[in-house]
Design a protein that fits this description.
The complex is a heterodimer of chains A (about 600) and B (about 425). Chain A is of the alpha+beta class and about 600 residues long. Chain A contains 21 helices and 26 strands. In chain A, about 40% of the residues lie in helices and about 25% in strands. In chain A, the strands form four sheets. Chain A has a 20-stranded antiparallel beta sheet, sandwiched between helices. In chain A, strand 8 and strand 9 form a beta hairpin. In chain A, helix 2 packs antiparallel against helix 5 and helix 3 crosses helix 21. The longest helix of chain A is centred in the last third of the chain and has 24 residues. Chain B has a two-stranded antiparallel sheet. Chain B has a two-stranded antiparallel ribbon with strand order 3-4. In chain B, helix 20 packs antiparallel against helix 23. The relative contact order of chain B is 0.12. The chains are: A alpha+beta (about 600), B mainly alpha (about 425).
């Protein structure tokens, strides 16, 4: 008997033996993965999730969208599809069945990292239909030359115990045990997976962590932060004090939790309208005294909701005690960042008409700070900026015990700041806006509006001979910004658009009360409305088409088709939200995306 | 017709072939693609020459051309710069594109001072409209151009307090050159341009600010206005020589001979300074095809970048084109001074040469360049065919050393080595 035929026989025997082992069919991916990974991610019921995704693509309208049709019609996609379909068909399946077979009952990726060494990874997929996976692999092995006439190529395979392991490329090993498809970039991990060492499935901490995620989660994962912090890049990122003041004041609390927490658990679930991903830290120390500014005590809940605003686009809500953070700046920030922050406070105090930015402004505002965006309805405006940006608003609640004099001083300071902006612009030959103090719904407001048409209006009327893309005069980006200020019901409002200012004052006056917040957690959130985003992009359709033509060398027709397809695709979405809940003892993040049409669960 | 401008006719000794076609296209526009070279060889010398002046532009260029106003109104000069370069990359009329840059340098006006993208666009449109026409009409139009009025302070040129900036440059930089006029001519000419102003990007003649008195300029006396000054300047013998020298430096060689300058100046005068007629004569002349004058000029950054992208048929994004030319020292719409870019040897130094070499490497690495596509398109199925292609599109017969057997890699390496060579910097 030649060596080769002996090898073939042994391979066949091992295949039969593996199939014959009754317990093999019940093993999970964690039964193959060695202990102590840095991170683990599992897709549960991959084939089922794939079916759900497939039906959702149809139900939600994604499959039928212009963008999907556009992608499907690209030559690259068509070529890839032909190859993939051909491959799957050779194994007697369609493409979806082939992908489902590969994902199997459960697919788990684990990453290992020892200090000073390259990261290692292992993927284990438990086949739902072992025969189908075997067919696919047999075909792939034949096509890639890993096996010849059904026998493994001895130059590109080896045996670990009874198991044939293929070495498709340098540092890529894979094998199929009959129920588990295992792939890794480390021979050590492959040997450990197939050996008798303790596995992740018997690790009590792993079992405990898995209980944190709900039973219906599609994807579950966790990362060992204690090990992850040993990775030089991660260690440096977590230990280093922020170089810029704003990121430091925004993310310093989260950074502190990640410095001390033991693990972070992540899971994803399908919801009735979309998808939800959650992450939670576990273990770790409480935030130190210097970090209490990240969990402010003096916080309110607004009675009015951003979604009540007409043409609402997005909201970022941040709960911070800004004065406390400023006072603890040396503990929280790097030295250059401290310098920048102090410089900023000094500069801004200079335009506040004698008020001190830290004590008089930051010291008298409460949390949360809201940053809102709403699409501006420019239909009644004589000038359309190019591009059209949304209106931006900054809203900060003031302390309740502040008297009217403080409000007036703050308003006067804001008025000075607006005037300085106007004067500076005027000195640079930029168009000026007229600022007027008025009353709106009984509240004092400062409204600024451009009075001059753009200097280029005469050119716009056709002097250049260029074809025009708009029927109305267009101004530069600057025409998006008209500083407006209001103080209504102890809420200090600054916007870039008179319309947005009035809308916000309308919302405040409709619900005048403030609700004192009762929970101890800080919730920072960012939210986005897809329909309004699509409307905003439609407002800028000409600019987007021009950009495609200039930067992507598209003809006008193609550029228009691409932009329209993308805008239509956005309309399939309803809303996306990312929230971070910071408590003294931990951090939780939740990301949700909702679509117009429901997801088939 | 003067001897240097005697008509050139291809002959058995100097046949109309790919090399000669590529030379004509390169020197009157940008380095051509293989397709352009093949089309020119097939069309013949006369038709190729005619097409330089009469070919219509393609739809993709015209679609892009229409976007100028929209971009200018954004007040985004960088976007406008990219747009201009993208048009050059697409145009079927490279000579018109080269002329536009030539006149932009001649009437060097910078957005740094003008601070209005619409005005800069308006000046470019004026230049493009007159680029092939009568020089007198162009100079009159430029004298009324709002960007020029701002750039050379003619808004401040008023009766009783003339500002001489524009009048000085009309003589020194636009028509006669140094030494062909006196300080008194400048003072008197400045009076003629008083009241030539602009408002909101439109030319405006302010009669109350104009000096209607008699002036004495370049030996003539009369109640002259700005148009008269332009006509008087162009009538000077120095104007023909000045303009001929500049055209020859742009299209032939950096130091044209006195004989050649005199011949082209004579042709300018014969045609009443008709630019198109003069260039037709020049490009069809023995002098233009004199082997001693071939590849004598150093390519400007615009020529270099356009040459690489057009010859390799790369659809480069507008901002990449603008960044590349700017880093090589030619930031369109922002010439360094009223004299424009010095050009020729000044284009190259250790820094800009490095940018050129890196630019070539980046272009050949970019996913917008496909060696496989080019090989398929032009049937480059053998190593010899690949090498010949590289030599044609780069006009460089430099050997590559050990060329790889893989034809795609051979094509890439062949182009990279030849385009990075000193010879490729010349046109």
């Amino acid at each position: 008997m030649t060596d080769l035929s002996a090898f073939r026989m042994l391979s066949a025997m091992s295949f039969i033996v593996t199939f014959a082992t009754a317990s093999a069919a019940d093993r999970s991916a964690a039964d193959y993965i060695p202990r102590d990974p840095v991170a683990v991610v599992s897709i549960q019921q991959g084939a089922g999730a794939l079916d759900a995704l497939r039906s959702w693509l149809d139900v939600s309208g994604v499959s039928d969208s212009r963008l999907a049709r556009y992608i499907v019609e690209t030559p690259q996609f068509m070529q890839g599809q032909i190859v993939a379909n051909g491959f799957a068909a050779s194994a007697g399946m369609d493409l979806w069945q082939a992908v489902g077979a590969a994902l199997g009952r459960e697919t788990t990726l684990a990453v290992f990292h020892a200090p000073g060494e390259e990261p290692e990874a292992i993927v284990v997929s438990i086949a739902a239909e072992p025969a189908a996976v075997a067919r696919l692999l047999e075909l792939a092995h034949g096509l890639s030359g890993l096996s010849r006439q059904g026998a493994p190529d001895p130059q590109r395979s080896m045996k670990i115990g009874d198991q044939v392991v293929f070495n498709a490329r340098p540092k890529v090993w894979h094998c199929f045990t009959g129920t588990a498809l295992i792939a890794t970039n480390s021979e050590r991990l492959m040997r450990a997976a197939l050996g008798a060492d303790d596995k992740l499935a018997t690790d009590a901490a792993f079992i405990e962590l898995r209980k944190v995620a709900p039973a219906d989660a599609i994807v579950v994962g966790h990362a060992d932060l204690m090990r992850l912090r040993q990775v030089p890049g991660v260690k440096a990122a977590l230990e280093k004090k922020p170089r810029e003041p704003l990121p430091g004041m925004l993310f310093g609390g989260w950074q502190q939790h990640l410095r001390t927490a033991d693990t972070v658990v992540v899971w994803a679930q399908a919801t009735a309208t979309g998808l939800k991903v959650e992450a939670k830290t576990r273990g770790g120390a409480a935030l130190p005294e210097t970090h209490t500014g990240y969990i402010p005590a003096d916080t309110i809940q607004y009675a009015w909701q951003a979604q009540d605003l007409p043409r609402y686009l997005s909201e970022i809500r941040i709960e911070r005690d800004w004065r406390q953070l400023f006072n603890e700046r040396e503990a929280l920030l790097s030295l250059p960042a401290v310098g920048d922050l102090v410089q900023f406070a000094t500069n801004i105090s200079g335009v506040l008409g004698g008020m001190d930015f830290v004590e008089d402004v930051l010291g008298n505002v409460r949390a949360p700070t809201r940053f809102l965006m709403a699409r501006c309805d420019a239909s009644d405006s004589s000038i359309k900026p190019s591009p059209v940006l949304p209106g931006f608003a900054l809203i900060m609640p003031l302390r309740r015990d502040l008297d009217d004099l403080f409000e007036r001083k703050l308003f006067a300071a804001a008025q000075s700041a607006v005037n300085i902006v106007n004067i500076t612009g005027g000195q640079q030959g930029q168009p000026s806006f007229l600022s007027e103090v008025d009353r709106y719904r009984g509240y004092r407001v400062l409204i600024s509006e451009y009075v001059d048409p753009p200097k280029n209006m005469e050119m716009e009327s056709g002097a250049s001979g260029d074809a025009l893309i708009t029927e109305r005069p267009r101004g530069s980006l600057r025409y998006n910004f008209m500083p407006c200020v209001a103080i209504a019901e102890k809420q200090f409002v600054v916007t870039t658009s008179p319309q947005l200012l009035r809308d916000i004052v309308d919302a405040i006056s409709a619900r005048k009360f403030m609700i004192e917040k009762t929970t101890q957690a800080t919730v920072d959130a960012i939210e986005l409305d897809f329909a309004t985003l699509a409307d905003l992009l439609r407002d800028n359709r000409d600019e987007l088409v021009i950009n495609r033509m200039l930067q992507y060398a598209r003809g006008r027709a193609d550029a228009e088709r691409e932009v329209d397809a993308f805008v239509e695709f956005l309309r399939l979405g309803r809303r996306a939200r990312l929230a971070f809940e910071t408590r003294s003892d931990g951090l939780c993040a939740v990301a949700e995306i909702a679509f117009q049409r429901g997801v088939a669960k | 017709m003067s001897a240097p401008l005697a008509p050139f006719q291809p002959s058995a000794a100097r046949p109309w072939n790919a090399e000669m076609a590529a030379s004509l296209l390169r020197r009157t526009g940008f380095c051509p693609s293989e397709r352009e070279i093949r089309e020119a060889v097939e069309a013949g010398f006369s038709e190729t020459l005619e097409a330089l002046f009469t070919r219509r532009d393609c739809r993709a260029h015209d679609e892009l051309d229409e976007l100028g106003a929209a971009l200018a109104l954004r007040e985004d000069i960088a976007a406008l710069r990219g747009w201009w370069l993208r048009r050059m990359a697409l145009t079927k009329r490279p000579l018109a594109a080269r002329l536009a840059v030539f006149w932009h340098n001649h009437f060097a006006t910078s957005h740094v001072k003008v601070r209005s993208a619409p005005m800069m666009l308006q000046q470019l449109r004026t230049i493009e409209r007159h680029a092939f026409g009568l020089f007198e009409e162009m100079l009159i139009a430029i004298s009324r151009d709002p960007a020029m009025i701002v750039w050379l302070d003619n808004v401040d040129n008023v009766k009783g307090r003339p500002n001489e900036n524009y009048a000085r440059e009309v003589f020194e930089l636009f028509s006669l050159g140094l030494g062909a006029y006196s300080e008194n001519d400048i003072r008197e000419a400045a009076r003629a341009f008083t009241g030539w102003s602009q408002r909101n990007g439109r030319y405006r003649f302010v009669a109350a600010e104009h000096d209607f008195g008699p002036k004495e300029v370049l030996g003539a006396r009369g109640v002259f206005d700005g148009d008269d000054i332009v006509r008087l300047a162009i009538a000077q013998p120095a104007c023909g020589r000045f303009l001929a020298t500049k055209l020859l430096r742009e299209f032939v060689c950096p130091d044209p001979s006195e004989t050649l300058v005199a011949a082209v100046a004579g042709r300018l005068r014969e045609t009443k300074f008709d630019i198109q007629a003069t260039l037709r004569t020049l490009f069809a002349s023995e002098a233009f095809f004199d082997p001693a004058l071939a590849a004598a000029r150093i390519k400007s950054p615009v020529e270099f970048v356009m040459g690489v992208t057009r010859s390799l048929e790369i659809d480069a994004p507008a901002n990449a084109l603008a960044d590349a030319t700017s880093e090589m020292g030619q930031r369109l719409f922002e010439p360094p001074s009223v004299k424009g870019w010095d050009g020729h040897r000044r284009w190259l130094n250790s820094a800009t040469m490095l940018v050129r070499l890196n630019g070539v490497s980046q272009a050949l690495r970019s996913d917008r360049f496909s060696a496989t596509r080019l090989r398929g398109q032009y049937g480059l199925a053998s190593a010899a065919a690949v090498d010949a292609y590289c030599e044609r599109v780069t006009a460089n017969q430099r050997a590559v050393g050990e060329a790889p057997a893989d034809l795609d890699q051979r094509l890439r390496d062949g182009l990279r080595v030849r385009m990075s060579a000193p010879e490729y910097q010349f046109a």
